[in-house]
């Protein structure tokens, strides 16, 4: 029975392990520095067994799903011991720094820099769910630096998991993902922070939280242990996105202060175009 190893058994790693068990013939083993996570993953049946870095040479597939600030270290550590046929891929949402860190490794050809655009606001092994990756885009960066057989194995596996593939340069990936994903998390965290600071009555928040507020602030439930490293590693792009966001907030505030109804209407009507994009692009 072929062996797959998942390193990092939180939401993404745990969900990947569940899918590998369901949709492939791999025996799925797990590694996690958090022993509580490891025990929970075993008890929930997310993985078949636990393992360690000394037993990776016979693995067919190794998935690295640790926080982005340690992915580079883990990828290099894994590449030190893999066989020529082993596929190694990570699922981090920041790619350029990782790609640079592994660029000169002798086994760079075994590595595929991937980012499945999937997730929820929950974390830990308990958050792992089936079908998380269905119809989601999976971005692959620097595909040309992976051995074609390894890349073919990765694409085949991603298709089994029902993901759509997109190729990108890692610099472009980090810039665009800051605008579309990372900024939305900052916005959600700061909306939650603002409401907590100006509305001291928690019962009022609970009673008056509409579906709009709940959906907008949903991402503020996300774990800081996941998102602080992401913001730090993609700092330049996140700051650029924040500058534009703050500018737009300031302009909206000015329109309201001046009771510029036409300006408010125009701003919101123009922004309504976002629904055309989201409804029209598959």
Compile the SSE list and pairings.
Blueprint: E1 3-7, H1 11-23, E2 27-31, H2 35-43, E3 49-50, E4 61-64, H3 68-79, E5 87-90, H4 96-102, E6 111-116, E7 137-141, H5 148-160, E8 164-168, H6 170-198, H7 202-208, H8 211-217, H9 224-233, H10 235-257, H11 261-271, H12 273-280
Parallel strand pairs: 1-2, 1-4, 2-3, 4-5, 5-6, 7-8
Antiparallel strand pairs: 6-7
Structural account:
This protein is α/β, with parallel strands linked by helices and 282 residues long. It folds into two domains: 3-168, Rossmann fold, CATH 3.40.50; 173-280, 6-phosphogluconate dehydrogenase C-terminal like domain (6-phosphogluconate dehydrogenase C-terminal fold, Orthogonal Bundle). The protein is 53% helix and 13% strand. The chain contains twelve helices and eight strands. It has helices spanning 11-23, 35-43, 68-79, 96-102, 148-160, 170-198, 202-208, 211-217, 224-233, 235-257, 261-271, 273-280; strands at 3-7, 27-31, 49-50, 61-64, 87-90, 111-116, 137-141, 164-168. It has an eight-stranded mixed β-sheet with strand order 3-2-1-4-5-6-7-8, sandwiched between helices. Strand 2 (27-31), helix 2 and strand 3 (49-50) form a beta-alpha-beta unit. Helix 3 runs parallel beside helix 4 and helix 6 (170-198) packs across helix 10. It is globular, with a radius of gyration of 21 Å. The mean pLDDT is 95.
